[in-house]
């Protein structure tokens, strides 16, 4: 059997990636296990408190929220559970 161009192309397609993989494997460093210290020492002392600010932020209990106006008509909420899918949902709105 004569070594033809087809055989050469097939050999190149197979051998070139294998050569690249072998070279990459040969050049990689083997990772060493991480060095763990035998004893861990923490800093001694208590953490310092935050410096007081000149204008304290209001707490949630200090904030005033206005109530919505009371109406006698039907509410405009989006809870249309009795009709199944919402009427304003277009195609693809799930």
Kindly list the characteristics that best describe this protein.
1 helix, 94 residues, mainly alpha, 24% helix
Describe the structure.
- This protein has 94 residues and is an all-alpha fold.
- It contains 1 helix and no strands.
- 0% of the residues are buried.
Summarize the structure.
This protein has 94 residues and is mostly helical.
Q: Determine the N-to-C terminus distance.
A: 65 Å
In total, the number of strands is: 0
The backbone outline, from C-alpha atoms, is flat
Integer-rounded radius of gyration: 37 Å
Unreliable parts: none
Question: If you average the pLDDT, what whole number results?
Answer: 75
Give the % helix. 10-25%
Main β sheet profile: none
Give me the strand/helix succession. Answer: H
Q: Beta-strand level of the residues, as a percent range? A: under 5%
Classify the secondary structure makeup into a structural class.
mainly alpha
The number of helical runs is: 1
